[in-house]
Amino acid sequence: MGYTNRPFDYTGNLANQVQHDLDLANENFDILAQAFVGNDPTIRKVKEADTVDGFHASRTPQANTIPVADSSGKLDPGWLPSISSIGSISFNQVEFTTSGTWQVPSGVNKVLIIAVAGGGGGAGGYIDNSGNNFYGAGGECGEAFIGVKNVVPEETLTITVGVGGAGGNYGVGAINNGAGGDGTNTIIVGSSSGNILTLQGGRGGQGYASFRIYGYPSIFGKAGNGYGSGGDGGYGANVGQAGKNGIVRIIYFA
């Protein structure tokens, strides 16, 4: 029989009305009990309680199941896809230490770019009229970038890698020491995307000081070393160190 919202008919006038109503109640209770595991409501475990749209929860990997953590709170490693199931997708990268071009592979629309512009050159040293030696100021590092950029599959990227600025000449007496040259920009332009990235080159070191001033470090290395670092300032009758050239590294999956 179907479910009856109100199985007890207290307005009935059957000679056996109470028995009739109890029978209806028992029939409905039997139907309700069948929703529980073992048809036993006392265990308080509903049948198919772990089912959502036909998918069962499971601690162990099975087809058409929903992953559930075990008592440790971790999923069975079997739920994770194997390397072979990933297919032919592979990790790739290209690197430019000088300017060039690169064609985006088919199917690639995002790339991770690590890039830095050219570092500024350090100023030359200085010797005053009393023969005292001074350091030149170090150059700045080139602007750096690490992040994801959108590209158009099969477009050509024109990559201009920044060049480090020249070191400044030293000065003596009335001749001031020379400032370091500015580093040049690193620029990436797509044939379809247009300008993708522009990084400013580091400024050259200016003037002199009574203590040593290093060029600023870049993301690739300490002061005076690594791509895009600023050049150290010279000392006394020494020229400043040239800034380091930039770099562009492109990482993608294909």
Give a short overview.
The chain has 254 residues and is mainly beta.
The neighbouring-strand order within the major sheet is 4-15-6-9
Which structural class is indicated by helix and strand composition? Answer: mainly beta
Helix count, per DSSP?
A: 1
Rg, please? 38 Å
Low-pLDDT sequence parts: none
Largest sheet: 4 strands, antiparallel
Overall mean confidence score, pLDDT: 86
Domain count: the total is: 3
Strand content: 25-35%
DSSP strand tally = 15
N-to-C SSE series?
A: HEEEEEEEEEEEEEEE
Helix content: under 10%
Distance between the termini: 61 Å
- Outline: elongated
Key features?
single chain, mainly beta, 3 domains, four-stranded antiparallel beta sheet, 15 strands
